[in-house]
Design goal:
Elements (H helix, E strand, L loop, with lengths): L2 H18 L4 H12 L4 E2 H8 L3 H14 L2 E5 L6 E5 L3 H27 L7 H29 L2 H12 L1
Antiparallel strand pairs: 1-3, 2-3
Helix pairs in contact: 1-2, 2-4, 3-4, 5-6
């Protein structure tokens, strides 16, 4: 496969995968473009490469910076901002998990904590409380597990996962 074709497939795939992380396809493609770029890129370069508007490029670059997946730098003698991606795959994974946890799991844990105090005064409320209690326990365990994974040394985690697969 030629480099150009492989690059196009990667940009497309990363954009599709990003949708499952809770970000737009375009945001994923911007991230992919910066991931594989050996040098930082200006907003104009991102716009031209992905054929997107300035507003769309700016919005996605800002969102990626908010996620901690890309950084901004100034180059001496140039007034433009230049963007480059975090290249450490463990850090990329960590930052995506942190954002997904904030967006998806944290609100669920908070909701279960709020509704766990319902009084059991009928059969329906007893069943409700039982289910909420089980879901709350599972959510808290998932939250705890993710916190531990995020704090784990990536080398230890990789070795542990490989050992489990043997």
């Amino acid at each position: 496969m030629e480099y150009h074709d492989a690059k196009e497939k990667f940009l497309s795939l990363w954009g599709t995968l990003s949708d499952s992380w809770g970000i737009s396809k375009t945001m994923g493609q911007v991230h992919a473009l910066l991931l594989i770029s050996p040098q930082s890129m200006s907003t104009e370069e991102v716009m031209n490469r992905l054929s997107i508007s300035r507003g769309n490029a700016h919005l996605n670059l800002k969102a990626l910076m908010d996620w901690g997946l890309i950084y901004c730098e100034m180059k001496p003698g140039d007034r433009k901002d230049f963007y480059y991606a975090e290249k450490d795959t463990w850090e990329i994974f960590r930052k995506i998990v942190i954002q997904r946890k904030k967006k998806e799991l944290d609100p669920v844990v908070k909701l279960f904590d709020e509704i766990a105090s319902v009084k059991e005064d009928c059969e329906e409320s007893k069943e409700f409380c039982k289910m909420v209690s089980e879901l709350r326990l599972m959510s808290n365990q998932a939250d705890s597990m993710l916190d531990k994974i995020l704090k784990t040394d990536p080398n230890w985690l990789t070795k542990g996962m490989l050992a489990m697969l043997k």
